[in-house]
Each structure stands twice: as structure tokens, then as C-alpha cells.
Amino acid sequence: MRSLLLIIGVALALLVAGCGSGSTSSSSTATEVTVKTDDGAPSVTLPPGPLPKQLVTEELKQGTGATAKTGDTVVVRYVGVVYQTQRELDREWRHPFTYELGSHQQLEGWEKGIPGMKVGGRRKVIVPPALAYEKLGGSPPVSPDSTLVFVFELLDIE
Questions:
Q1: What digits encode the pLDDT tens for the residues 70-112?
Q2: What is the C-alpha R_g of the chain?
Q3: What gap in Å lies between CA 113 and CA 132, rounded to an integer?
Q4: Which helix (H) or strand (E) element contains residue 150?
Q5: CA 51 to CA 154: how far, in whole Å?
Q6: Domain covering 30-157 assigned CATH 3.10.50.40 in the classification
Q7: Other C-beta atoms within 10 Å of 68: how many?
Q8: Domain ranges in the chain?
Q9: Which residues, 6 or more positions from 117, have their beta carbon under 8 angstroms from its beta carbon?
């Protein structure tokens, strides 16, 4: 009988410890989630599992043109999603965006995630907080600990 009471007591203690009143944020999604867009931009698929600590790139469509490198002025269109909230962060799909790679005008995750793309290609880039807004602070809907997921299409290198 004492063993049963001890087991029940330990189970209750673990249950109470797991139900703290502080807020927590999930560090992963249970299953793959796709955030759909409404203007012809691609949907953004958030992979299941733990959040990556390093930059992750995935070729969605291999381009056939010139290869982007630091110092190039690139023309991209993109859609970005906050991994934790599954909400769209930003989008420049209808109006392509031009900037110089390596100029530090954009997130460090962009600076490291776009080089190597070929014109005509599409790439998903998962940007951990350290390469996103962790150092800059961020603003709603982006907190400093947000992991961001972008789908880029490289349209041109000027």
C-alpha cells in the first residue's frame, strides 16, 4: 500500500511541476505546417521537429542562370513566416526587392542564405534568432527569439 501511495505522490508531484503558471513557448511544431498565401506567392512549409540552431537552406527549384555571390546586387521576391506563430511576417512577391548582398542592409540570415542561388531558382531559408532579430530586438510580430522561414526566388543579378 505504501508503494502505491509513493507512486501516486511522485506522479502528482511531476504533474504539478509540469503545470507551472509561467508562459512557455513551443520550440517545435508537432507536424509539418503550410502557411498559405493569397497573391500567387508560394506557400511556406514549416518542417516538424526542433527549431534549428543553424541556418538551413533547401533548394525548392534549381535555377539555371548566374550564381549570386557577396557583392552582387540581387533582385529577389520573397515571403517570410515566423516559425513559432505560423504567421506571415513580410512579403515582397508582386514587387521584387533589390539590394546588395553583403551590404548588411538585411538580416544576416539573408546575407548567408541567398549566396549560391542561381537566377530562376527558389530557395527556402530557415533563419535562427541569432541570424535574425536576436541582436536587433525585433518588433511585433517578431520577437528577438523568433525563428524565421523565408522562400526566396532569385529573379536577376544586376
A1: 999 999 999 999 998 888 888 898 899 999 999 998 999 999 9
A2: 20
A3: 12
A4: strand 148-157
A5: 26
A6: yes
A7: 24
A8: 30-157
A9: 63, 67, 68, 123, 152, 154
